[in-house]
Predict the 3D structure of the following.
Amino acid sequence: MLVRLNQTTRRKGEFLRFGPCNQLPLDDSNPQLKRGLEAEHRFLISYSRWIERNNGQSSRNANWSAVDFTVRGTGRGVELKTDFYPHPKNIFLERWVTEERRASGGPWKAREQEADFFCYWLVGQSRLLIFDTNELIEHVESLPSWKRREAKTSAALNSGYRSVGYLVKIEDVDYVALDVHHLEFRE
């Protein structure tokens, strides 16, 4: 599986390769978190030839919290978001982790963590969208407000917190993806 890098930053002919791994311990106390961790593990198994789980440090800055993965040999950060809805028409790009604290979430947090790539896995469609983090943010912020509707998550589903973000039609962002892969999640 090959993913072309951003035309403005890559050298001609340079490609990023994503592509089994150590067992990941799972937290059974939160089913939603457990499912997300299982998806991260399956993502890592599928692409372990090209990426590795981050060791808990930022890829380039020890003062920032860590991205999910790094590209082997480059230190470039990869953040993964999973969406388990069976037939989504929209994606939820979390802008603020909690409504109260206004801490960055989604691709904005990934950018703060110096993640070069933001991957959005639509598990129900077996589609993995791979974005350049900065290009995704610029694109979403440039969309007219009627194409990026502000939305809040349910506090009941999110440990008592309400996340704030944007609901964006998949068709309004998938064309800015660097690549789209078929990736199945088998339970």
Notes: The domain at 2-182 is CATH 3.40.210 (PvuII Endonuclease; Chain A). Confidence is low (pLDDT under 50) at residues 1-27. Helices lie at 31-46, 106-112, 133-142. The radius of gyration is 16 Å.
